[in-house]
Fold each of these.
Amino acid sequence: MANSDCIVIQGSNMAECHPVGFQWVSEAKARGAKVIHIDPRFTRTTAVADKHVPIRAGTDIVLLGALINYAITNELWFKEYVSAYTNAPMIINEKFKDTEDLEGLFSGFDSETGAYDMATWAYEMEDDGTSQAGGERGQGDGSADEGDAEGHGASSGESHGSGGPPIGSGRPKRDETLQHPRSVFQILKRHYARYTPQLVEETCGISPADFEYLAKTITENSNRDRTTCFAYAVGWTQHSQGAQFIRTAAILQLLLGNMGRPGGGIMALRGHATIQGSTDIPTLFNLLPGYLPMPKVGTHDTFQQWVDAVGTKEQKGFWADADVYAVNLLKAWWGDAATKDNDWAFDYLPRLSGAHGTYQTAMGMLRDEVDGYFLLGQNPAVGSANGRMQRMAMSHLKWLVVRDFSLIESATWWKDGPEIETGELVTEDIDTEVFFLPAANHTEKAGSFTQTQRMVQWRHQAVKPPEDARSELQFMFELGVKIREKLAGSTDWRDRPLLDLTWDYPVDEEGDPDPVSVLAEINGRFESGPDAGKPLSSYTQMKADGSTSGGCWIYTGVYADGVNQAARRVPGKDQDEIASQWAWAWPANRRILYNRASADPEGRPWSERKKLIWWDAEAGKWTGPDVPDFPADRAPGAQPEPGAGGPAALAGDDPFIMQADGKGWLFAPNGMVDGPLPTHYEPPESHVGNPLYAQQNSPSRVMFAREDNLYAPGAGEPGGDVYPYVFTTYRLTEHHTAGGMSRTLPYLSELQPEMFCEISPELAELTGVEPYGWATIVSPRAAIEVRALVTERMKPLKVRGRTVHQIGLPYHWGVGSEAVVSGDSANDLLGLVLDPNTQIQEAKSNACAMVPGRRPRGPELLDMIDKYRSEAGITLATGHTRITVPDEQSGTLPPGVDPSAGESFHWPSAGAAEAEEEEAAVEHEAQAAQDARTGASGAQPDGGPNGKSPHGTGTAGHETSEED
Amino acid sequence: MRGSLTHEFSGPTDPIADVHWDHEHAHSRKGFFTDTSICIGCKACEVACKEWNRNPQDGDLQLLDSSYDNTGSLGANTWRHVAFIEQSQDRIEQARESGRALVSLGMPQVGPPAARAGAPVTSAPGTSAPGAGSGGGCGGSCGCASGADPAAEAHAGSQSGCGSCGTGSGRVTEAQAMSAIDAAMAGQSDLDVAPPDTPEFRWLMSSDVCKHCTHAGCLDVCPTGALFRTEFGTVVVQADVCNGCGTCVAGCPFGVIERRDDGTISPPDGHAEKPKVDQEIPNPRTANKCTLCYDRLVEGQTPACAQTCPTTSIKFGDHDDMVSKAHARVEQLHAQGMSEARLYGANDNDGVGGTGSVFLLLDEPEVYGLPPDPHVPTRDLPTMFKRAGIAAAGMLAASAVAFLGGRR
């Protein structure tokens, strides 16, 4: 980012939430870069930005789409870059229909399931090729996912890793003039033609002057000599269309030629330590290390079916070697037990039967389908959306293990949680056995952190953990040892995967396993041959014949030569600006992904100022300060042999080497479950009508029509004015997510001691809330009390004749008696509507009411919530209408919901809650289809100088709103 | 004798030499330069300071009703304090005006205020040049904090400089400053040097700290010798010597030093059952303040706050270097049209002989809770001695007259 000429921070409060990373924005600014902050609030980031552009939460696609339109209309896009490196010239098949043709739906929508069949989005192929979109090999495996009643449609979201979804065999048809009416470029141009400054003004609340400033600044800083960078965080991901927000930025950055170049790209800011690492080597239900997808029941029954779904030998790029990565992973886990004869123990892997994200799991607990729960570094009682559902769910468990530094609210809800106060839960009646195990913190254990820029940095143990506190590594290792002891001698085939695990890490005198030995296993080694036992130095050394193993192919090289490369700390002053000797970045210690795009098609840098790697014709190889992200000797003009597959099929001007066509995707012919192009829909509880289409909300969003997840009426539904304001949640510098690591510490607690809201003076006057006085905020899910911080930093926005008041709510506080400070939790207000690509909840734009004073205590609190619901006439169907296109009006309600059920919902009496759980569930039977993650679309968000994982967006949602 | 007193109690001096540190032990004078224009208000300095120095929590765990500032002020337990100031357009315009007045020393300006607000700062060298040598003599470039303040000017008249900016001492001459601006602008010709439009709103953040004055009031009035001048030119309390008399508290013109109570924390209203934070209170009932991390300096380390600051808003180094960096930065901001930028504590002719911790502010010092014209109580000692002497002599004379007269 330090190399950027213009930095647009949107969907992120970078200075507050990533203050250390923000030093590079400060550095860029000192070098003359313009910094623009687009955010509903004026924050500490805004305070040091050149310009603040306030925006109505949830309308980012309109703004970004208008920038795309501006660049195209004014001929400001980077023609050579776009023609050579993107799929702009590709022809889309003639069955494709845009939202502009279908009043807000793309072709292929199934109103029964709420899912798209992507076949009509596919490229038109030359001669005998077949298009692949939506086909059987897609990880989403489309219709194969029968979602059950509880949202168990698989999240196909991030399962593509750094590779794009397959596009079928053959060569896509191209029109180099970009004039063909079905070329991606023309489709794109038509799609965004109505995204004008006027639309921005009436949808986002942004003045034409501010839009002009933004558009000019970005385009003037995007060319051969200059680059613009975008930075986002959960302000983009935590929307029901989050992945599409990022896609829109990716399209813009490709059009402006900012991907794969110094100071360009899209920075997906990861919220805390090694969140990036937890997607690379994932804690997600649908991914395996290195972005290999979890196999699914029915579609991935054999090893070959599984690896072919990731990438076939015929396709372009490095995903063609998916079988190699898979075999090495299985060898790392099961060692000698993984043989060619048993398909490398493929059958030891569990199979996914549907989505098992954190919210689906909680709903499973409520159905008494889940016995036990481990919480490691997570505080769902405070950090997850719809906190009440989470706490009620935990009360159904048989056992709960909380490993943390202190007694967080998720460990104490049974004695002092909000439901104890309201009487919904009675301590004596809760059968859950709760175990609290003290955990070692990051200074008390060694290991690695993988951060935003894919950089793996080693940390050493500074002090021994106190008393009984243990590292996660030791805990998991000992748990494995104990379970294996109990199973020893078992002949049950179901126990083989556990008994055959390689579980032989050397331990120190305290019994703590050596984390370097784990790093070595992740890196991989030769298993046989002359180098047997030696570490691999590159994933290209991996073989699919069992002679090598490696736990995460993208990390291969981090332990090259038997040296912990992540622990390198050559100071910046002793090396060049790329700083390749500081720690280690995956893959192959590359600092900027897709950096082939930093040179023109002939291999020359676009400019002296922005040069990074280039073709050295004499030496016959790519060279430059960074590690080239391209076959090192592939000449710029090279063309693949006919019939070639894998890396060999990459032409000399195919910089996006993980994509099946080598190009950045302006249009996603496959992979995004909710549309090939981002298109604006209003957030689920929006009071504003969609100015573009009759289709009000995203038709593909994942919904849960449950009595513990009621929604406010949106625009066009009666009763919407009962919850007239918009609230958006966020973090503060002083606290850490759900507060487990900050509200327990006096030094941090005193800096932000009380839960508060941020409101404009206008809203304060309207509601009668006094500055720093108490206010109660009510949503259809909960009511919380907050102190009111009345500030000009919040501005009401005029949108389509309506004044939109936005309320800011930090979510760090929770109800309990153990922390230094406590307070009501903002996440209790949130309901669950998820992005179908990523299963991330909508947390940034929801409806609420606000009144002065503190909230009622005890059961009266429930009466208050109920009163508002009754007034608004809320039913299970409210806010859960999938299709609002006129001619499809019938049959729009979810199965099981009686459209005539006008009677509003009433809170169950205490104790009766359980009986109420079997409501109709609307589920998104995710037709899943392919990948959702932004990267799938080619315009990978990782192109930035500190490029991020392909799966940037994924994690957050899967976990909780506390994560980012 | 009197000359020596003047030298030690006011005006420019080398505080390390003044206390006779020998060459073997004396270091160059250390200090901070806090550039508030790049502060992001993360408060990492506050936390790092408390962690390193093991200072107790001292907030009462309630909102202070002061934007994001829940600390309030420096005190016995808080040695770094980040202020948050929300300002609307009127106030920003005033800050620009007052800053411009500092630069141009109130020379007549052309055009209506609105036009002036939008005028490029390139006019500043031209308008300020005739001002050289007038008033306090600080010239055009420094943007000192109090030069335009009538009270400060009065003080300036009685002392040797304008107020607080430091250029009057010749550290950076006007000509040098002007040429620096010109050079900056010539070298960055592609930079937008037109002043930015006055924003509708801004949020100032500033990390305050002990000033480690050249003439330290706290040290000079300490009756026990608990306060001392270190080999780095900083001022430190020795807790084992301090008897907690509190004289120093009144001696500090900035309200920095404070006596530590027993650290009891009262639960906030409405949370009566909140457990009291169990914490150790080091050095109770003694005076406490920032040591500029003396224990880290003797090990060659950077003070905790500067070490942790993610944006380098807090810089640490040789005092001379900090002051020249501060001047360079304010010139750069002026060149970008930010006439509201000015320095605080960088004038060694001010009432405390300049401070070891210098600041770049974006508004008048009062806005940040800083005194506009701080002066050390001992500055007036020579005058007081003189007056006391005259009075004593007068009384003697009167007595003598009385006795003599009585005889008659």
Amino acid sequence: MIEFTMPSLGADMEAGTLSEWLVKAGDKVKRGDIIAVVDTQKGLIDIEVFDEGVIQKLVTKEGEKVPVGSVLALILSDKEQGNVKEEKPEISPIIEAKATEKVAVVPPARIKASPLAKKIASDQGIDLTNIKGTGEEGVITKEDVEKAIAAKEKPQEVKRAASSETIRMAIAAAMSKSNKEIPHYYLQTKIDMRNSLNWLSEANKQRSLKNRLLPVALLLKATAKALTIVPDLNAYWENGLQRKADINIGFVISLRGGGLMIPAIHDGAKKSVDEIMATLSDIIPRARVMKLRSSELSDSTITVTNLGEGSVETVFGVIYPPQVAIVGFGNISEQPWAENGMLDVRPVLSVTLAADHRATDGHIGSRFLTELNNILQNPEAI
Amino acid sequence: MNNNNTIQLTYREALKQSIRQALQKDERVFLMGEDVGRYGGAFAVSKGLLQEFGPERIMDTPLSESGFVGAGIGAAIAGMRPVVEVMTVNFGLLAMDQIVNNAATLYHMSGGQVNVPLVLRMSSGIGRQLAAQHSHSWEPLFAHIPGLKIVSVGTHEDARQVLLAALEESDPVIIFEYTSMLNLESEISTNPETVDLVHAKIRKEGKDISIITYGAAVYKSLEAALDLAAKGIDAEVVDIRMLRPLDETTIFTSVSKTHHALLVEDAWRSISISSEISALIMEKSFYELDSPVQRLGGVEVPIPYPKHLEDACVPQKEDIVKKVIKMLHHD
């Protein structure tokens, strides 16, 4: 039996309220399915499941507030289901084999809805797959569809958004903890971006307007690549340095109403610059309406803050615990640049690193910034 | 109990008044059947009419349903307006050949030259412990036959008016009256609304579910609707009234409003009026349905003699209430 538990959606989260179940006992789930909505300080968050199987029991009721790590539901994995059948002693081997076969065939989930509900849904463009039926045996009725229409008409922000006050409190808690517990050290360097910008402008010539690459996508890719060479910064500090295998860069997105969201860009090292750009295009609007998935909120292994859009040249970050580093990008501006005894004007980027001195020393941080510079000087090799 | 606008009377009295009015209104009208004259009718519906109208117009017949229904058909063809009483629907089977092969068919066989303006009245249903040879609800059996008009008299207003409308028809009409309701009193208007043989009648408007019914189940459905109202369910009660031809429009309009339909009748459940209407709703109002059409019908046994078993054989008010709650609240 697999236990589906209340996830930690940030170091500051101690408990969450199970706001809504999107599945019921007997439903089949697969990795990545969103099966519950949890109310946190960061608003209502869609919670994904990471296992495959059948929901055996919903342990936590809707509206219940439980600590991080509490069992929310029990999931019977596909393998276990097979076992249950095999344990029956009276069945002869041949029949048993058949029975097991039968179990393996999972019929496609047919949505039961009344003819009227289906008609209204089709007229109004409502997707029945996300509606929970309240009719007999879970049939979707007219009332259920009408509720879904009403919910759709209400702007999502109203329903999902945590108040800016609760977000403020969450940031306050995490940043206080960081400043209290983490001995930061700070490094700064300037990087000549001429090669990178030239490479980008060449690359964008072959791309449609929609698929154009922004400098930040290249910077994130370069950061991920540098972390493969200096893995000590891609880690948690939890009873010592815990390196993380996947490089999931948390990208700071400021909200229009104040406050921040830091969704993770999963597996940055394995993604191409185009893929990172696509991820950003997907994630930024969702972060702004606080429609992030639980994995995007909890999986970051390092944070990048980018103030390049404004006139700020340099940003020194505060580490998001239990991570051990935060990289800051300022804007790219033309500056006098001395090289080989000559003075030139180059597009220059100021990069900073704030790192946890318990976990690493300045030497490691320096190596990271050096590697980052090397990568950005040779963008064609990225 | 008589004031300016309404009159309190039994279902039996309402039937008698309609026969009396018909006899007064048109001298071609006469009543014929077993015991209708000297005895005053097996259920006392025609008591006193022999004295008032004489043996030419209130005619006792031998126990010979095929014979006197056939005689009625002949009289109708010859220009009279016969009202033939068949004591119970069970005896109606003895006249089935006359009803199907002559009354319902002659207009067709004569190429439209011969109309049969016959009115047949039959008592139907349980209620007087007359057991399995006198108590059935065979409306569906007769409603199956093209060429007939079938009316079911589910209320006092209709008991007072339906016969008069039937006598206006130029084709055979069978009127089903309900033995169990004869002594039931109700208040009706002294000047009741005329009835046509086309339309069903909404007996109570509602928005949550359509209870579609006829005959003895109409009052039970109305009582159930009262109970349901106390539970916050606003049921509409549709009295089908015309079992052939069916008033589909009224039925579909109601279902389109409430999106839930429960069909209630005393007749055996399978191959019934409900079966037919359920199929029609499915064919023509499918996309208006928010739950499957449900039926409450008679238990499929010969009607038993004991009172409690008789009652158990047909849907009662409590059954209707329970079924509606299950349909709408799923418990």
